[in-house]
Amino acid sequence: MARWLVKSEPAKWSFAQQVEAGDAGTHWNGVRNHVAKQHLMAMRVGEECFFYHSNEGKAVVGVVEVIKPYYPDHTDETGKFGMVDLKAVRALPPVTLERIKREPRLAEMVLVRNSRMSVQPVTEAEWALVLELAAG
DNA sequence: GCCAACGTTGGC
DNA sequence: GCCAACGTTGGC
Fold first, then answer.
1. What secondary structure letter does DSSP report for A45?
2. Covered bases, chain C (protein CB within 7 Å)
3. In Å, what is the separation between the CA of A121 and the C1' of C2?
4. Is the distance between the Cβ of A114 and the closest atom of strand B smaller than 7 Å?
5. Given CB 3.0 to 4.6 Å as the disulfide criterion, which of A73, A77, A102, A109 pairs with A83?
6. Which domains, and CATH codes, for chain A?
7. What is the SS3 assignment for A63-114?
8. Which residue is nearest to nucleotide B6 (CA to C1')?
9. Is strand B within 7 Å of residue A116 (CB)?
10. What pLDDT tens digit does each residue of chain A (136 aa) get?
11. CB count in 10 Å sphere of residue A54
């Protein structure tokens, strides 16, 4: 099972809203980057992603699960991009970007190395460590 | 609010 | 097919 991280500006779509959407989930539309698209295409149903608040908060705040694999994004008029459906699994005590950057073993996280990647893979070790930090 | 990093667009 | 100009993201 691969692990992922998806980003959203809470002013546009927050984890609280994701929780409100319930088990029906929502489509993760709007990705317009080819590398991020590759990651979306690689997602399998049942795989989990960290939900990261960018700009405001700058922290991992929860876990979401893939409930529908890659399909066309109807909001993309070029027809090139797609999306997956995600549902909230659970909230996490926030793990801030600042905290992640202070952890040497997380120095290779895409979140640290390429701050603009909106959908990114997370290694098993990174996943476990961030959960550890969340647990305090 | 600024700006660095990076992706995309379009002229040539 | 190159690359300058431009737009966007997101940390600070």
1. T
2. 8-12
3. 32
4. yes
5. A73
6. 3-135 (3.10.590.10)
7. EEEEEEEEEECCCCCCCCCEEEEEEEEEEEEEEEHHHHHHCHHHCCCHHHHC
8. A116
9. yes
10. 999 999 999 999 999 999 999 999 999 999 999 999 999 999 999 999 999 999 999 999 999 999 999 999 988 878 889 999 999 999 999 999 999 999 999 999 999 999 999 999 999 999 999 999 999 8
11. 18
Nucleotides of B under 7 A from a protein CB: 5-8
Q: Is the CB of A114 under 7 A from strand C?
A: no
With beta carbons less than 8 A apart as the criterion, state whether A56 and A94 touch: no
Q: Tell me how far apart the alpha carbons of residues A63 and A92 are, in angstroms, rounded to a whole number.
A: 7
Q: Is the pTM of this model over 0.85?
A: yes
What angle is formed at CA A108 by the lines to CA A12 and CA A69, rounded to 5 degrees?
A: 50
